[in-house]
Amino acid sequence: MSETELIRLKPRRIRLVCWSAAIALVVVFGLVATSLSGPTGDGYGSFQRGDQLAMIGLGIFGALGFLLFTRPRVEADTRGVRVRNVISSYELPWEVVRAVRFDRSAPWASLELHDDDLLPMIALQAADKELAVEGVRALRRLHEAHQARLAERASGR
User: 126 near 132, Cβ under 8 Å?
Assistant: First the structure.
């Protein structure tokens, strides 16, 4: 394993779903915005240009909310692993990682840490099937290589 090997993993299926939903939401809110005109009903109000722009703005904000779910990524190299989930990010050296887990019926893989915490890696989702399995195997190889280096150093004393 080379010293400069870098693994970059992103979810595939959720990105496709989120981008499709974001585009559909902007289109629907755009269509609703164009249909807002005239009186509001039996009342004294009427829709104005600002109401139309507000509907388009709401559609854009909703789409940006969907696109937050395209944020998860995992990057790993010989030094450690960087996990970026929907909201939070973590950078961990391999020394604190006990195992890379992908349990049956789990929605995504996780890192088991030496302090008994589980850190979810939302970028490696079960919905991505073989792509997620290959990603977990690559992370396990890096982790095992680190463990082997530690054992080498310990026996070399």
Answer: yes
Is residue 6 one of the residues assigned to a domain? no
For residues 40 and 105, state if they share a domain: no
Per the structure, the complete domain to which residue 105 belongs is given by 72-155
DSSP state of 10: -
Within a domain: residue 150? Answer: yes
| pTM passes above 0.85 | no
Q: What is d(CA 3, CA 122) in angstroms, rounded to the nearest whole number?
A: 26
In whole angstroms, give the CA distance from residue 100 to residue 82. 13
Pairing of strands 46-47, 38-39: antiparallel
Same domain, residue pair 29 and 101: no
The C-alpha angle with vertex 53 and arms to 67 and 22, in degrees rounded to 5, equals 20
pLDDT at 139 over 60: yes
